[in-house]
What we know:
By secondary structure, the chain is mainly alpha-helical. Helices cover 44% and strands 9% of the residues. The strands form 4 sheets. The protein has a two-stranded antiparallel ribbon.
Amino acid sequence: MKKQQWKNIKSWIKFALAIVCVIVFVVFYIFNLWSPLKKSVSIVVERGTSVTAVTNYMVQNRIIKSADLFYFSVRLNGGKIQAGEYDIPRGAGVWTIADMLTHGKVATTTITIPEGYTIKQIKSMLMATPYLSGDVACNTSASVCALQDGDVFPDTYRVARGTPRLALLDLARKKMLSVKERLFRYKYPEPLKNWNDVLVLASIVQKETPQIKEMPIVASVYLNRLKKNMRLQADPTVVYVLTDGFGDMRGQPLLRGHLKIDSPYNTYRNNGLPPKPIANVGVDAIRAVLKPANTNYLFFVADGRGGHNFSTEYSEHQKNHSVWRDIKKEINGIVDYNK
């Protein structure tokens, strides 16, 4: 082959590659960058809505420029769109939108169920949470309709917008079942006899301290008292009774007279554990009960710094309590009482 012919061939190859690059860029631009969207929008695709109806809506609302290009993109992505709420970003092209709708890449929301919340608190929170649907009450025999404290696992859940509130509760219920399966192999510390005992004590520990490092120590105090047949005298159990299971005094003080309330949950009047958990607990509180600290402590009281002072003798506890009483009086003037 002559040198000139080879140069001509190379020139044609370069020209052809340039044409291909231009075509690729044009196709990419048309499907991915050619967009009338100047800001992000949300659309809701109801179940059973046709591709034609969705396409017409988006053309009319200037979400896409070309119905034909969107039809073609949907067909290449499987041909069917899925119901749900979608957040379409600013500048999204037809291919991006078709990919979202055909693969169900719906808008999501993050819901956090705090550790130590009761079922009533969780339901109240969910009813005030946007982006979910439905009520928290139901009249069927489904497990989610008979939830009790201790049945759901506090965690952060990422769900599709519009998820029914009962479905989220059921998701948290199933998560607790999986936690139980994972931790069920642990040996129960004496004198706990079953999983309910573990959850009951864990719920008290959860309500007594937010500090993870303190939880095993608090658990040891209550286990030591149970072994000696001493009443637990746990304030959160009284609060649970006074608030009818809500678990939060909402700023009201807990007074000496409240400790006399008649209820199987009142650990100032009854020996042993309450019949059921008084809150929904995280894994740290459960592990604290399953693997408590090795102590002889029988008493504890707040130290005014977010933690507690622990003691083995009542005389020492009285001194700690006197210090806390002075701190509390200085903070808000509420007189505390002895455990």
